[in-house]
Structures are given as structure tokens and as C-alpha cells.
Amino acid sequence: MFDKILIANRGEIACRVIKSARKMGIKTVAVYSEADKDALHVQMADEAVHIGPAQSNQSYLVMDNILAAIKQTGAQAVHPGYGFLSENASFFDALEKEGIAFIGPEKLAIQAMGDKIESKKLAQKAGVSTVPGYTDVVRDTNHAVEIAAEIGYPVMLKASAGGGGKGMRVAHNEEECRDGFERATSEAKSSFGDDRVFIEKFIEEPRHIEIQVLADTHGNAIYLAERECSIQRRHQKVIEEAPSPFLDEATRKSMGEQAVALAKAVNYRSAGTVEFIVDKNRNFYFLEMNTRLQVEHPVTELITGVDLVEEMIRVADGQELSIKQEDVKINGWAMESRIYAEDPFRNFLPSTGRLTKYRPPVESDTVRVDTGVYEGGEISMFYDPMIAKLITYGKDREEATANMRQALDEYYIRGVGHNISFLNAVMSKQRFIDGNLTTNFIAEEYPDGFDASMVPQKDPKQLVAVACFMKRMETEREVMISGQMEGGRGRTINDDWVVLYNDEKFNATVTPNETDGYDVKIDGTTLHIRSEWTFGEPLFFADINGHEMCVQVDRRAVGYDLFHAGAQATVKVLSQTQAALNELMPFKAPPDLSAFLLSPMPGLLLSVAVEEGQEVKAGEELCVIEAMKMENIMRAEKDVVIKKVHTSAGSSLSVDEKIIEFQTDDA
């Protein structure tokens, strides 16, 4: 067995690999860019080597820098994680030349499956069901339109070397096909250095279901059930689960056997994933094979008990798989939510910055947190905005979901925007509860985007009761400090309050009860609340009328910001006099910025399509901003005239930076 391995990656996946290596008694080497010098994976590893500037094309993607770190530390093997060099055949060659083991598949599989056009041809030869389409390279825009017309709309344009949703566009007509081809080739070239695109039939009402495979160098290959990955946004997976609520045992077996057949066709070794698109009748079609560990691998680990990273390391060492197909059992249910630094209320734009507060839920047999960050660390603009993967387990889907929603309530993050409210909202949808999932779920459930009104609203009286509980505790402490009463639970405090809950008003009375809690009477309804909360704690765990709940608390100058089940409320608990004075407070209107196009995210201004004095119609392109390797087209919301262009193509933008100014009626 190896004595030392190097992880050619960063973030949560590097931390994940370190955990399994440590369990196996193997020392680890981390590599890091300038932006990651204080990162968690650097702190966890036994050794760490600096490999270059923050930009990944000058650090994590530079093979010579990785090879130098290997020589410097004497590592015997390399785990590539996912992304970066994980599916790079040249990297495999470079390691092999130096006698370093690659913890992943052989070069043949990487090359064959890394090209989506060639992989589809191989799948067809191996007897794997494939989607109808054109498997050769599309020459140009006119060729794309010609092919799409032959296949029949809708079609999917996909980068041959693509992954992670980049270089993918759906077209329902010729205009969308032309625009989609241009965008897909541009993103493909930017992200992968390969602008080849192919076209296939777009399956409507599709599910994205993938099969985990494991293979060794002794001829053994098995499948470890499936993962449902249909909840996606912009082709990026958001929530995954295992098993799928849709498959029956016969379909599972057929998909698994075809996945294994494909793996054997390319002499696969290590862990890999065969992805399928599945229609409403359980017909399934090959999408692609990822020759690496998948982001969502933890859900498979939880329901099978197999440590995939450990198996990968053992296979790379020449050992046989530790299990056979007949040993694979599905036990319980697992669910994974990807916690991203993004603002769901601003079209999910990336949110970078420092994690001023970071407290993940406590890990247990039912809660797992895979992360590469910590309180005080930074979410960099140079890499993927993932904060963590939150994984929960239950005896069935209902329990796994309930555990997930509770864990989301307990995930306390401040300093950057995050998508926890959106994740909670998705899981509250009846469609999700029923398991009626497709890759169109988010687009169909949120056709006009996501905003605060779409977060499920619990009975506001519960959060009113929480605010009253805290206000009562504060009042007791204040009078004790001033020496006005003996004991913290005296009944002489004036507890008749006016509670302002966002735009709603409630009348509340708070009195101690005999169970060491409080009775909160809110407009005629009494809630019994018990909690061991102490001042300064950001999480308020309580029992309200026998129901356990967790509320996140941020103290304001007057009142509290409370967060529960994805919903947020600003709550003020006021005396009658304070409430009357509050009515007299003047309203301060925010500045009018409607005459400006502001950058909605930090990123690179790729192009500006307008100039000063130009008349622009609603829907026309204004500029293109690139963030996290994704191109975002900014369009005019209405007919406007350009007054001034404040910056130029190639500029680095900060959030809310002025890009374009429009003429106004009073200009």
C-alpha cells in the first residue's frame, strides 16, 4: 500500500480524500494556490506545497507544478478529485512516465469517455441505449441548424469536452439553435480549450439518473445502485438522492448491467459514473461517463456502506475490489444538498467574500457535512462557489428529507449569500415530496425566477413567540442588573407587547409557566415555548406546543432577524409606547438606480454591445459578463437610449459596479 499520496485538487473534495487516506494510515500532501494558502485542505494534510497564483490555469491546471510537488514530497500516487486534471489523459501520461500511480482509470478510458462524441459511439458498440442525434462534430451555425431540423426540435447542443453544465444549450427553434451554438462553442473554448459541439435530441420530461460503477485490474466490475440527480439549475445539479424514487428493480438492474458493460468495454478501473437520461416510461439513454469521483458520491456511500475513495486507492495499488455484486445492498435513503455561495434572490449570482460566521450542523449517523471552508475563510472568485455538501440519511425518503430540512435550519452562514432558503423551498414543494422529478423541475416550478415570496411561510406566530421569549429573557436580565427585582423569572414585568413581524402587527402577552418556559398569548392564541437558549447563541432550539424547531437569530439594534425553513423575518417586540412612536418614524427611500445597469456579480466584462447615444430595444443584448466560467448575457428590460458606458470589455467588475447609464425623461 502507498505510504503517501498527493491530492491534486482543493476544497471539499481534497478534504474528503484526506479523511479516507488518514483512516487507511496513508500520509497526504496538499497543493495550494496563493488564494488557498490558508485553506482547510492545506491545514488537514500532512504536508502542503505552493503551486502558483490564484488563477487555476496558473496553478491547479499546470501539470509541471503538480509533478514538481510530487518530486519534492516523495508522494507515490495522486488522487485528482474531480475537475481540474481529473480527466486529463496527458496528466496520466506524465504520472506514468515518472512512475507515479494515478488513483483513477487508465488512459484509454479517460480518452474514450472524455470525448462525448466518441463515448457515444463506444456505448452503441457496447450495446448501451443511446439518445438519437448527430455524433460527429458540427462545423458551423448553418450546419447546426441543418442537423437540428433533421433530428427535430427541441435539441440539445453540447460541448464534446464539456462537463458541469458548461457548453450546453437547449434550442426549441432555429433562432435559439443559432444563438445556442455560438454560446456553446464560446463557453466550450473558454472552459475546456475545445470548441467542438455535437447535437442530440432533447428528451422532454427527462430524469437524470446515474449509475455508480467500481472496477479493478483483475476483471471485476460492479454497480452500486443509482443516484437521482434531476433537480438541476442551468444543468448544474442542486439536490441528489439515492436511490431514485422512480426506478423499479428491473430498470435498476438493466441500467446497472449496461453501465458495467460500458466500463468493461474500455477496460475501466477505479470508481466511475455512467449517466443516463430517463423518460417518463423508464426508457433510458446513455448521456456520458465521468471517469472520476462524482460530487454526489456520498449518497451512494451512505446507502451501500462502501467508501468509494478507499476502494479507488486500493484499486490503484493493484488490489481487488473488497465486494462483489451480490454483496451490494440498498439500505435506507440518502439525500445531498449542494450549499453554494450564491444569491437565489438575485438570479443565483455568485457571492464571494469572507465567511464571517460559519457553523455547520453537528455531524451524526444521519447528518454528514463535506466541506473545505471554515469560519473566517474566504469564498474566492477564482473557483467554484461551493461552500459544502450537506448529506442526510434516513430509513426511507421521508425521513431523509425531514433530516435534511432540519439540518438546513441548523446551517448558520453569514458573510456571503447562500442558497439554503432555495433548497428549503424546493423540498417543501409537493412535487418534490411525491418524487415527481424531472430536469425541468426548477424551470417549471420557478418560471420567473426565485424570490422571497416563494419561500414557504410557516405560521408567523411561531416566530413571534420566539421573539417574545428572547425579549422576555432580555428584560429579566436588564431588571436584575439594575437591582429592581429578585430572581430571573419574576412576574412583575410588563409583558404586554406589540410585535411587528415584517409588515404584520400582533399583540402579545408573555408569562412564565410551570414547566420552566413561557406561555405566549398572541391575538388570542397561546403557544407554550421551552428553550435552553442563551444570549449570543445564533441558533434557538425550542419546543413550541410539543414541536421541536430550530430558528437562526441575528440581533438587531431593535429586534431580531429570524430565519426558519428558508424564510426570513425581521421581528420587533415593542412596548405600547414604543409602538406608538414607531408609527411616527419617517420612511427613508433608497436611492433610485433604475437609470443604471449595475454588475449583478463579481466577474469579467467580456463584451459591450452598445455605445453612447444608441437606441436599444427591450430584449436586446447590452453586455456579457463571465463569472465562474459561465457567460451571462445582460439584456435591456425596456426600450432605452444609452447615455454613457462607464467601463470597457476586459474590465474586472465588482458587485453593483456601474456598467451602463441610460437616458431618463428628465435628462
Characterize the structure shown:
Helices cover 27% and strands 33% of the residues. Strands 14-13-10-11-12-15-22-20 form an eight-stranded antiparallel sheet. The chain has an eight-stranded antiparallel β-barrel with strand order 24-25-26-27-28-29-30-31. The protein starts with a strand and ends in a 5-residue tail after the last strand. It has five domains: 4-103, Rossmann fold (3-Layer(aba) Sandwich), CATH 3.40.50; 132-201, 2-Layer Sandwich (Dna Ligase, domain 1); 207-454, 2-Layer Sandwich (D-amino Acid Aminotransferase, Chain A, domain 1), CATH 3.30.470.20; 460-582, Glycoprotein, Type 4 Pilin (2-Layer Sandwich), CATH 3.30.700.30; 596-662, RNA polymerase II/Efflux pump adaptor protein, barrel-sandwich hybrid domain (OB fold (Dihydrolipoamide Acetyltransferase, E2P)), CATH 2.40.50.100. The mean pLDDT is 92. Helix 2 links the parallel strand 2 and strand 3 (47-52). It is α+β, with helices and mostly antiparallel strands and 667 residues long.
